[in-house]
TrEMBL record:
It comes from Blastococcus brunescens. This is Glutamine amidotransferase domain-containing protein. Residues 247-257 have a biased composition (Gly residues). Residues 245-274 are annotated as: Disordered. PANTHER family: GLUTAMINE AMIDOTRANSFERASE YLR126C-RELATED (PTHR42695). Residues 23-190 form the Glutamine amidotransferase domain. PROSITE patterns: GATASE_TYPE_1 (PS51273). It holds the Pfam family GATase.
Amino acid sequence: MNTPDVVVWTLDGRPHEGIDYGTRLVERLAEAGLRVEQVVQDERPPSDAELSAPVHVLSGGTTLATSGVPWLTAVRNALEEPLRLAAQGDALVIGVCLGSQLLAERLFGPGATAPSPRGLEVGLGPVFSTGPGWASYAAVPQFHYYEILAESVARRPDAELVLTGDHSGVQAFTVGGHVLAMQFHPELTVDDVDRLVDHNAGLLDEFGLRPDDVRGRVRQRAADWSTAPVQDLIVTPVRRFLASGEGRAGGPEGVLDGGRRRDVPGHPARRSRL
């Protein structure tokens, strides 16, 4: 097997009918002209050739990051090689939602994740830059009720909080120059979020949320959604790393709005090096 540019580690579950959590990640990366291999982790482990790929992107999923189910234990074990390569600057590892929580538990130690005190975050919401070189975004897709604890990021001197939010304080972090993790789903579209709400109506009910109310809030923010987050945080870092070996991610301050960058109202950029 030829070594791909990017391996998408698809974790379990579906945001809605018709796609798994890796689908949009594969699409966005393939649209950028990259050779992408998808590995559905609860069906098979990555091959040696896949483990040696230069870029690894961990998807969202439904199983808790701390679960001891066999397939997830195998994922943790398989991640050791990409993370070893990333630590020496020879690979780029990106985690999305559950993928970010898996990275937090591995890199910050047990207990790095916990149930969100604010319950389920679902829909479109803003995330805010914590320093220069990172963009704030007015409407990113969200779907989680576990989150990464801010104090866990402080356990490593080479870790940095780069995006935060009102619901969950850790919305994105880096470790060194070659690991980037985000709690939200930049790869999803507004239509995906609408369908996600319908598909997970039972879960919303468990958290006291009405699907109609959530869809209404999605409609209010839909005009602020853009492809900027997935470009800034996934596609551009991957292409940059493949071209030059640089691992730094992030874009200019502010959010994309009709070709312009602007600050998210009421939330100036905040610096927080934990």
